[in-house]
Design brief:
homodimer; disordered N terminus; 5-stranded parallel β-sheet; alpha/beta; elongated; Arc Repressor Mutant, subunit A; disordered C terminus; DNA-binding; Rossmann fold
DNA sequence: CGACTCATGAAAGTAACTTTCATCTGTGGC
DNA sequence: GCCACAGATGAAAGTTACTTTCATGAGTCG
């Protein structure tokens, strides 16, 4: 049958004058509220149009559909498409004072999602590749971060560990500096700092580099102090707002970058990574209670 | 019947583990290609899933629909709304074996961004409101989480702390259980677990609740064991892939939810929260080295 | 004014959907 | 190890929705 890829509703509107009176009544109902029509059964719609089911079927054929069910799902699809995503325009800035929860959720989700997308867009695959090389070939891997970035660092460390690349992460600056002092050629130090100016991270990276280790940093500001001590610079792309200070916004973007590196490293040695993953997953599984409840 | 205003497909994803095997087969087909499923008749779909029509009907009811035709039009509508980015066909699934870095980045960013968006869409503002109330009114706040979710828990704790709502987070199960045992009416325990089946988190929440504390949980699976012990259930919406085991994907979504709660709590008492934020920011600022370098 | 065309709905027929029920399977208790 | 039980499942019966057929009637053209 006929294919009307674009606007079925528009198409019906154009066909309207050429339809029989009873079919026109059906058509008008459909055009007026496609979503509502999609919800009705054929008998329903026929009654609402003051006609019989047979006429509705004829109408379907007249507009190029095979039958009523087909029309229904087409209508549902078109009605959904024409609904404009509510008020995405306003969303994206700061949170207004009297904001309700739905607004807050929409705003945050929007800015998080955008941070992720924009970060991915500006991330340089070549630099990533070098960092991945470094991770794969490194003797020892240390990951540093303070505050919110510290959590990202911990996450990175956990992940590398799970695929068999032993890594360390220090919550304490002194321990971190000690580890950096003990590193050398062939080792890798990864710093994570939104501002790129966190003293601890800068010091640690500087120390590691002075000892001959390779250094990499993940920051939002490509010209921040820390980049002076980094062989490889990866950047996130996050904007700040009042209530969500910088690190908060960028943390999601940082995690995305960490995930990318993780997957890329795992992809380098698929079988071994998979085996390591399975082993760790197995170890964790025993810590689960029974599977999800079935309809309680 | 149930109203799932946001993402039915996402909702189905979350319900997946709580469905019976045969229903899961149906669910997977539906999630994999909603538009295609909408085109099929019930017999068709049943055959494709290797099961009977009866099971498909049961599946419809399980996900909150009245019957198959209703499911069909909902699927058609959602599939249409989901404006698929041109080359997103490959993106979103598993990472192909020979993937290059650009592909990996695109895939991960896409699935992260989608997890955030879908989570926001299905997040219930009413439940969030109750959790915010609980946080604002709580005597003591404990946040629990293990593994990757543990980092999210730590993040939440840090955030609450920064706006003056003292909270605790325990990396050690014993300490957590002890704290839970000491909690009581007016206290709040928040559990974070992607699977909802992490034994530690379940035990701790059960304990806290038994002592009279209010409990809340953040999980991907609304019918998982942990929800039995939670007064408030918040859900993320993340799908799993091979290389990025569940918790990895959902962590970004979890963080978004945590951010929402954080901002909502801060919004309740704007001046005080702002003052607390500024105080902590000031404390951290001293730990920064000079501002960003100007063209080196 | 008759013969034709077309629109229309009633009713019969078919396919789709829903319910019921018997069977089966795995689980936990003794 | 066996029994009782709950849950999962599909076959088949039952119901509803959809489609076809056909008779009727209104308009209309020679």
């Amino acid at each position: 049958m006929n294919h009307e890829p674009g606007g079925l509703i528009v198409h019906i509107g154009g066909l309207l004058p050429s339809l029989s009176p009873a079919e026109q009544r059906v058509a008008r109902l459909v055009v007026a509220d496609p979503a509502d029509a999609a919800r009705r059964t054929i008998t329903d719609l026929a009654t609402a149009a003051g006609t019989s089911e047979a006429t509705v079927i004829r109408f379907c054929r007249s507009v190029g559909m095979d039958g009523y069910p087909q029309l229904r799902i087409r209508l549902a699809a078109e009605a959904a498409r024409r609904v404009v995503p509510p008020d995405a325009r306003v969303v994206g800035g700061d949170i207004p004072a009297g904001a309700d929860l739905a607004q807050i959720i929409a705003t945050i989700a929007f800015s998080d999602a955008r941070a992720v997308e924009e970060t991915a867009q500006q991330l340089d695959p070549a630099v990533c590749g070098k960092v991945v090389d470094a991770i794969v070939g490194a003797g020892r891997i240390d990951v540093y971060g303070a505050g919110a970035s510290g959590l990202v660092a911990a996450d990175f460390q956990q992940k590398l560990h799970r695929i068999g690349r032993t890594a360390f992460c220090f919550p304490d600056v002194h321990a971190a500096l000690a580890s950096a002092a003990l590193s050398g050629r062939g080792d890798l130090a990864i710093g994570i700092s939104h501002t790129g100016a966190t003293a601890e991270v800068v010091e640690v990276l500087a120390q590691a580099r002075a000892r001959g280790a390779t250094t990499a940093v993940l920051t939002n500001f490509p010209r921040s102090p820390v980049t002076a001590f980094a062989d490889h610079v990866l950047t996130t792309a996050a904007r700040e707002t009042t209530y969500r200070s910088g690190p908060t916004v960028s943390r999601v973007a940082q995690l995305t970058v960490v995930d990318c590196l993780f997957v890329a490293v795992a992809a380098r040695n698929r079988p071994r990574a998979r085996k390591a993953l399975e082993a760790t997953a197995e170890a964790i599984r025993s810590r689960r209670t029974g599977s999800a409840r079935r309809r309680p």
